[in-house]
Amino acid sequence: xxxxxxxxxxxxxxxxxxxxxxxxxxxxxxxxxxxxxxxxxxxxxxxxxxxxxxxxxxxxxxxxxxxxxxxxxxxxxxxxxxxxxxxxxxxxxxxxxxxxxxxxxxxxxxxxxxxxxxxxxxxxxxxxxxxxxxxxxxxxxxxxxxxxxxxxxxxxxxxxxxxxxxxxxxxxxxxxxxxxxxxxxxxxxxxxxxxxxxxxxxxxxxxxxxxxxxxxxxxxxxxxxxxxxxxxxxxxxxxxxxxxxxxxxxxxxxxxxxxxxxxxxxxxxxxxxxxxxxxxxxxxxxxxxxxxxxxxxxxxxxxxxxxxxxxxxxxxxx
Amino acid sequence: xxxxxxxxxxxxxxxxxxxxxxxxxxxxxxxxxxxxxxxxxxxxxxxxxxxxxxxxxxxxxxxxxxxxxxxxxxxxxxxxxxxxxxxxxxxxxxxxxxxxxxxxxxxxxxxxxxxxxxxxxxxxxxxxxxxxxxxxxxxxxxxxxxxxxxxxxxxxxxxxxxxxxxxxxxxxxxxxxxxxxxxxxxxxxxxxxxxxxxxxxxxxxxxxxxxxxxxxxxxxxxxxxxxxxxxxxxxxxxxxxxxxxxx
Lengths: 318, 247
Known about the structure:
heterodimer; A: mainly alpha; two-stranded antiparallel ribbon; globular; B: alpha/beta
């Protein structure tokens, strides 16, 4: 069995067994998994050589869509809310992606950021509709048709999130090996040639963008129903940065990287917040610096056989 | 004879005061092997860039296979059968040799499948035969960035050949290749072109190579075609000898 596969199994066991010993850890695990799914979306874009500093837009937009739906129809099943989140994310991705994918590099990243901040500001201003900066509360909706108490609800949600993470990780891996996925990777190394062999760079990146938006949308739905609250903060640019951080920390070579990154991120946040109150970002900073020097391709790259391809900032050592 | 495969009418383009295409009227019949010669800056690559859609001309038109392709993108023109290789090999540097050719083969169908893995989405035979043709069959699993320059050129050409073009335009296929290897490289390319019966244009500086492999030569001087004919005629032309070959 390959090392990434062992990592997948270890993560799944950890996520499902840890709450038996530490019941309070369910919520951080759900949020971590949700973060991982958003990072999985970002990792698709990183494969194409692009980084978005605004994907919290899709997390937040879908989160609010889910909140509106749950408030309007309190009996709506959580499964449908999750599907709604992914759908709204994809739809937003179709619209935003249609013009954002014309840009590359810093323009791509900043345009995404700008759009996410427009949503952030709008959510804060239209308080009659959105509850302003306080956000919106949503009641616990039924899950698989059953009304549950909080503890039971969280257990079911955790298992659902883990199953979804497994399924989506596999689907993303499958996509990245397909023609569209390989074209996405080729976009990074030679866009001109891609066009000259008859493949549309625009279409290639648009498809990847919609997928990443859908994953971030699903993640937003998970955040919304796990916390019972959506706020404009979900769309703040720092959140977008955190998703990118998690994706880079974990590495994009294998889908498991996004979840390893999310695990480390949640762990650092929990423990640094407990023991170094107010300085957890500093701890994250040191983690990132350590990563740049020790594992520039992310943690998951350490699990794979060393590639012969040198990357830009990693010179071949004598 | 039917319509020419490639025909340009009154092509004009200037970068500021520098005229790079000076009313170029040119036509190419099926089956020809045209060598384009000329000094650096004479407008050879610009002519290729206009024909393949990378640059739009300020005036005039390009017809390919009887259809106007002047305002079409490189992608659409490539899908119609006019394909080029590059002076500096344009490869997917993070892919293996075989995956580079597979991606090109996938481009031929134009469909971006999300499910079937790349390796199964394209015809294995088509990929293998092109790799065989250019002599890279043994290097299929090597990373394209790791190949020596001569093989990078061949891979670049293989990525064009797998598209099964009607017209292949080779921009300086032997530049950056040592003198010893030039003839071997050209022989390999020509064998591959013969195998697919492809009409070809190649930009070339080496007079030996031109006279050996071309059926027709066009000499570019300052954005216009100064001489056009058989290799013997053009290479004997006084203006060409003075301005292009440098005698």
